[in-house]
Amino acid sequence: MLKLLISLLVISVLVIGTSGIGIYLIESPHEDAQITNLIDAFWWASATVTTVGYGDVVPVTELGRLMGIVLMFVGISIIGTFISALGALLIGSRLKKHESVESSTKSLIIKKINDIENLEKNEVELLISMVKDLHDEAKTNHKKN
Fold it and tell me: Where does the Potassium channel domain start and stop, copy by copy (predicted)?
């Protein structure tokens, strides 16, 4: 998942870079152009890809506007994929953490059971409580699925 996020970042940089240069080449020769330098071109490309769209710098040619339309859809796709991947990464790490805690609890229970003859009464009660809690959680999770 992390590779996907890095790939999306690289794709975003490439999209902004190529569209910035492209819009500059398309727009700058036009006499009414608002995009007359590369800084304005990259600003416009960034604002368009991120769907912010300030509107302070806009293409005036038909080809430039067509490029803007395409870039808007590309931007929406990149942002949607990025947010989905980020959400999946966060949920996955949370699930791994939960599984790790559950695994540690099971290991501790097994260790205590293997040494049951040496446990104090309160340790036995704690062990029983841990097993009950683990059982209840497993039943709850099973019902959810």
Answer: 14-90
